[in-house]
Amino acid sequence: DAGVIQSPRHEVTEMGQEVTLRCKPISGHDYLFWYRQTMMRGLELLIYFNNNVPIDDSGMPEDRFSAKMPNASFSTLKIQPSEPRDSAVYFCASRRTQDSGYTFGSGTRLTVV
Amino acid sequence: SQQGEEDPQALSIQEGENATMNCSYKTSINNLQWYRQNSGRGLVHLILIRSNEREKHSGRLRVTLDTSKKSSSLLITASRAADTASYFCATNDYKLSFGAGTTVTVRA
Q: How far lies B36's CA from each of A22, B4, B96, in Å?
């Protein structure tokens, strides 16, 4: 298995631009999570899906952030418009059941200038 | 919100020594998990311990859980340079909440 695949690995964009981050979870994993990691705030859960349905989006910072999971093998996290304070590493993770460990992707390092 | 809080924040040891880090949490849990993160990389799942378990081993890793004290510890025995990383505990009710991590440096 190739693990959780995220793209792009790095993204540099100008303030105000739209950014789309992509994630392919492990096949058979019913849960998908989006986390953000910064030095100041550590790892924060943004949103998670179960069987493609968003369950908890209370961590999404504001309306500029949106996430979708159109099918079991693909999810996107979109920021529109982006701001410099959105600069962070964004991780996608998946797990098979509620009682299993998470597999993380390699992350997308986003820099908004 | 961050449930797990690791202690110490940083740890520097000589290769071959043991490394111990602790994690405290606030509310009841289904399980507690430990992860490792190498610089610039994603998190790697190390071990999961369920709320009804007290101790678990995996290779050179030993994890304990004390639900009465709401605390856990991770012991890495016979450390190697490759163990240099940040270690996070994460409490799991229906989603993982991470602490700030312990940065471990193993000196050759």
A: 23, 14, 14
For residue A106, the chain B residues in CB contact (below 8 A) are 41-42
Please indicate whether, in this complex, the C-beta atoms of B95 and A103 are within 8 angstroms of each other: no
Measured distance CA(B49)–CA(B54) in Å, rounded? 8
The answer to whether A99 contacts B42, with C-beta atoms less than 8 Å apart, is: no
Task: Supply the DSSP symbol for A25.
Answer: P
Which among A34, A20, A37 has a CA at the least distance from the CA of A92?
A: A34
pLDDT tens-digit readout, B5-28: 888 999 999 999 999 999 999 888
Beta carbons within 8 Å of A32's beta carbon, 6+ residues apart: A23, A25, A48, A49, A69, A75, A92, A93, A94
Pair of tokens at residue B52 = 């009804």
Pairwise CA distance, residues B23 & B47, whole Å: 14
Contact B42 A98 (CB under 8 A): no
Type of residue at B8: P
- Residues B70-105: tens digit of each pLDDT: 999 999 999 999 999 999 999 876 677 888 899 999
DSSP B9: S
| Interacting residues of B40 by C-beta distance below 8 A, sequence separation 6+ | none
